[in-house]
Amino acid sequence: PSAPDNQIFLHAVADKKTAVIGEQVTVSFYIYFRVSFREPEARNAPFTDFRQVPLLANPGTEPDRKAKVGKDVFHVKLLDKVALFPLRAGELHTGSRWSRVFSTRLGGNTERRSEDLTITVTEPPAAGRPPGYRVGDVGQFALTATVEPRKVDQGSGTAVTLKVAGNGNFPE
Questions:
Q1: Which of 33, 41, 120, 144 sits between 20 and 30 A of 155, alpha carbons compared?
Q2: What are phi and psi of 105, to 5 degrees?
Q3: Confidence check: pLDDT of 33 > 90
């Protein structure tokens, strides 16, 4: 309904407010502006209780668009978009993205922060969990398999080797 600043501000948006542990929540960070500016310095939100995966190849290079905020029209630019995977249950905070913006119309360097979003996270239902699943088994994994030898005589043995690689909280 109204802008937190009438010249330039950061805004964070989550695609959902509730999730279960390990369920993706996508958070986008935008800058709304009515003055020309440069962003010489920025810090991402900390995402302390989340595993994060960047979704943009070149953050901050998206074209800007126009949007109405209250009665005012702003240019809007997507700064970053991140896939978050909650690691525990509770009221989890994303933290704020921080930017230093330089604009002669604002008198030089000015600091701006996005909202600190709160995501309500619960444990997934016990029914239907895969065998061996533990709450918090969240990450990005790849499973590969090799079979050797590839040709055998009838009645001979073969070895199957499975390899899990990646990062995050590895399943036991």
A1: 144
A2: -70, -20
A3: yes
